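Technical note accompanying the year-one report. For the benefit of new consortium partners, we illustrate the data format agreed upon in the data management plan: each record pairs a sequence with a structure-token string. No post-processing was applied to the example shown here.
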Amino acid sequence: MALLLPVSVTYWRIYVKNLNEINIIRAVMCLSIVITHSISNYLRNVEVDQIAYDQYILWIRFSLLCSTLIFILLSETLLSRNYPNGLKTGFFPKRIKYILMPYILIGLIVSYRGSDRDLSSFMEVAFQKVILGQWYGFFVIVIFQFYVLHWLIGKYLARVNPLGPILISFAISFAHVYCFVHVDSYQELILTHYPLWYKTHIFMWLFYFIVAFYIGQYYEQLITFLTDKIWVPVLMTLISFGIIMYNIYVSIMAFLTISSCIGVSFLLYQNGLTRHFTGKIQYLEPTPKQNRASFNGKSRNVNYGQ
């Protein structure tokens, strides 16, 4: 992974425009990636007791595994913030030159190291890693998919309310991951027919793309909110880590169940016929016409000239 850090540095220089907070995050994520791979290699090559290994898996590695994800998420955040009205001419050639080419060259080096050092073995390993993305550099393929998505639908996303795309993308990504893990036929379908490594599938990353896009669109407002209420991300991070470490299942299922019920009720309440399935929900009741008429009547009686 350390071999790709120069690529990451070049990548960030293309985007970052005097955003100190992004530079800080970039530095922390680079260090996190190096540390987690260094500890992993140490545990593979040095004999340690199982208890120490288990503690590493539970506490250190899990806390650092978000690094690559944050790299990918910030790629679209910065893209959305710096190019709100569409990509500029020459965008893709520049990324191919400074990001894709290093990916290919470093991938070839890694492939040679992982091969039997003969041409046939090297070509086979290089195809799996560089073309299919079956190595830790797969995040570059995901980022290029984000580029294409931003180019295709970025202008449309900027015109609509963020809530709809966020909810739809979450449903797609969640369903994809859930079915891949729990439905054998779906997993076989992806592994058999999806041409690249399964970790690069856009359905897996669609939710992150949409969220990152709108973070970029509302970047200043979000930074202001987080600056004023720094306890919110800190608390949410601790809660998320606690859920993962102790029990991923009860809290998440409770949250999803409640959220689903609220969402379905909201949809059913939009129609007079299906509204009978939910009963009266005072919060979703339309404003009475007589109240609006009364308000308008009072407004007309006000003498603004005095």
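Partners are asked to follow this layout when depositing records. Residues 31 and 218 are 28 Å apart (CA to CA).
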